[in-house]
Design a protein that fits this description.
With 315 residues, the chain is of the alpha/beta class. It folds into two domains: 12-183, P-loop containing nucleotide triphosphate hydrolases (Rossmann fold, 3-Layer(aba) Sandwich), CATH 3.40.50.300; 189-314, no CATH class. Helix content is 55%, strand content 10%.
């Protein structure tokens, strides 16, 4: 059998706990994989699901089980992601990106999805010894959805649930108490570089600001690179150089508000914060940028927010 945790770096303790549970056949009804995004929690959930669904199976069937888990179409596996509501339908983050759908409110795991989990677990496993349910970004559940899931965790039947969340503190304590917590940690610099050297362009590895944004998370580094590539040079370079005249500042503010979606504007402010800290370390600039983010999140007019931010240096 292939190593289900291949490619998972810097999480030896988590792997050891999961492999020991399989080896001793002491599998908890529910697990909580907690830690920052982009450090391997989803890879671990996929690998652990593969091990769980392979228990008691004919070795000849293991390659097929591996493929099905990778494709997330195993009949005894239900993989749940946060969704948006769009025209009466639920749409995942990746589907929204493909369709060009933008939303001001973040995606969430909805009570309808928890009901689907309940229906899925009401049926016995079709092939494996147990069913497996994985819930990504479980911290996005509203209280009603979390309470509905709590009832399922009390009597999961022949199933194991894996909740992936940024922190136990962002979930109901009653949910956390029913899970075995598996902590995941940010990667050390050596492991981070090992992962990124296989996946990222050299330009990313050489960019101090993007590597600082990553903070030990390969996933965050790759996401930062994608966002960075999406910012036009006609916006980024004048921002980094800082406009010399109020007229230039106003034109730049207009371009940012017109060309960039709100989420990308928020990311750009994050980037500027890290950039200024790397190069200037002026707390006043960082606070101005943080204030601009607060205004954007409060749905203030983006053009006005950028006008005020870029004109502040002339005051």
């Amino acid at each position: 059998m292939n190593n289900p945790f291949a490619g998972l770096k810097g999480q030896a303790a988590a792997i050891a706990l999961l492999e020991a549970a399989i080896a001793r056949d002491r599998i908890a009804p529910a697990y909580l994989f907690s830690g920052p995004s982009g450090i391997g929690r989803t890879i671990a959930a996929q690998g652990f699901s593969q091990l769980l669904l392979s228990q008691g199976q004919d070795p000849a069937h293991l390659p097929r089980i591996h493929r099905n888990v990778q494709a997330r179409n195993h009949p005894d596996l239900l993989w749940v992601e946060p969704t948006y509501q769009h025209q009466g339908k639920r749409v995942t983050v990746s589907e929204a990106a493909e369709l060009g759908i933008s939303r001001k409110a973040p995606p969430q795991v909805r009570i309808e999805q928890i009901r689907e989990i309940t229906e899925f677990l009401a049926q016995p496993p079709l092939e494996a010894l147990r069913c497996v349910v994985v819930i990504e970004d479980a911290q996005t559940m509203a209280e009603a959805a979390a309470n509905a899931l709590l009832k399922t965790l009390e009597e999961p039947g022949r199933a194991t649930l894996i909740l992936i969340a940024s922190s136990p503190d962002r979930l109901l304590s009653t949910l956390v108490s029913r899970c075995q917590c598996i902590p995941f940690y940010r990667l050390c610099q050596a492991d981070l570089m090992t992962v990124l050297q296989a996946k990222a362009p050299p330009e990313l590895l050489a960019d101090e600001t993007l590597m600082a944004i990553a903070q030990g998370s390969p996933g965050e580094a790759l996401r930062a690179w994608q966002e960075f590539q999406a910012i036009p040079d006609t916006i980024l370079q004048p921002l980094l150089a800082e406009p010399n005249r109020p007229q230039d500042a106003l034109l730049l503010a207009k371009a940012i508000a017109k060309e960039l979606e709100l989420e990308r504007q928020l990311w750009l402010l994050d980037y500027l914060q890290f950039h200024h800290w790397q190069h200037q370390r002026q707390s006043s600039q960082l606070e101005q940028l943080e204030q601009a983010k607060r205004h954007l999140r409060s749905f203030a007019q983006p053009r006005l927010v950028w006008d005020c931010l870029l004109l502040s240096r002339f005051n």
